[in-house]
Amino acid sequence: MKKVAFVTASRTGIGKKIVKKLLKKNYIVYSNGLKKDENLSSMYICADMTNEKEIEKSLNKIAQKEGRLDLIVANLGSGKSISGYDVNINEYKRVFDINLFSSICLATKSIEFLKQTNGNIIFISSIAGCEYLGAPLPYTLAKTALLSFSKALSFEVAKYNIRVNCISPGNVMFKNSTWDKKIQENEKETKEYIKNNVPLNAFVKANDIAKAVMFLEKSKVITGSNIVIDGGQIQKII
What we know:
This protein has 238 residues and is α/β, with parallel strands linked by helices. 47% of the residues lie in helices and 16% in strands. The protein has eight helices and nine strands.
C-alpha cells in the first residue's frame, strides 16, 4: 500500500522539490498553497495553513479519500518582517501565525491520523532558530520556538511510534527565491557574501532539503532531532 504525504506551502521552492522527491518514491502526495494550481502532478489542496478550520478540513479530506496519512511536512514559513527591537506586538503575532502557530496546529491536528500508521512529522525551520544571525526578532523567535516545540512534541508522541524532527536550512537557492533575486541584482556582491559567510562557498539547494526529508522518512529510530543544512554557515558564526 502506498504511503500518503501532505506537504504544506508546496507550489514552489523547497516544498515543490519535496513533493517531486516523494512522488518519485511512489508516495501519494498532497501539495498545498493559497492559489489554485492545475499544473502539479500531485493532489492539490488550496487552503490557508494559518487557519485552524482549513487545516482540519484538509486533513479530513486526505484521510477520507486515502484512508490513511503517513507523513506531514510542515513547510510554511516566511522571513519577511521588521528589523529592530521596537517591533509592534501585532507584527510578532503575524509572523508567529505563519512560522510557528500554523505548524503547531497542523502537527497536533494530524496526530490522531498518524497514530494509525506510526507516522512522521517533519518541520522545515531555519538556522535563524539555532543561532542569532541578525534576522528580524519576530522571525528568530518563531523559529527558535518551533525547534523547541518539535523536540517536546517528539517525546509526547513517541509512545504512538510517531516520529517528529526538524530540518533547519541556511541560505537556499531556488527559482525566484530571495537569493535568486539577490544574485540577479548583484551577482558579484552576492557571491562575495557567500564566500565570506558560508565555509563550503555554495548555496543550499532545495533538493538538499528534499533529500533530508527522505532520509528522516526512512530512518525509523530518529526523533527529536534537528538537521542543519547550511554549508557550514552556522559554524562560521559560532
